[in-house]
Amino acid sequence: QVQLVESGGGLVQAGGSLRLSCVASGRTFSSYAMGWFRQAPGKEREFVAAISYSGFNTAYADSVKGRFTISRDNAKNTVYLQMNSLKPEDTAVYYCGSRPYTAASERSYEYNYWGQGTQVTVSS
Length: 124
Prior knowledge:
The model has no long low-confidence stretch (mean pLDDT 96). It is built from no helices and eleven strands. The chain is an all-beta fold. The chain has strands at residues 3-7, 10-13, 18-25, 33-39, 46-51, 58-60, 68-73, 78-83, 92-99, 113-114, 118-123.
């Protein structure tokens, strides 16, 4: 069993920054890839960013490339999402997920554990 707890969401003006954190417990965090996804009202959950077990490989959605950075600290069992130059269209609930493989993936169905989500609201 894996527990994932996100934090760091909030209300920010367009152009601002936020850093999301996701703390994992329950299994060997450093052996598994992690990802961030988001879901806006009335829309399906979409991929944001993913990172391999080691942190050496990352992947990003085109909509966030150059603005968001995913990273991880295996000593702290934590994955981060640094979000800069935020736009109103980034408003959503952000979820972190754990994938039982080492490689990063954009496919949400390959993640078998999820956190409860943290709300990010960007005002114009």
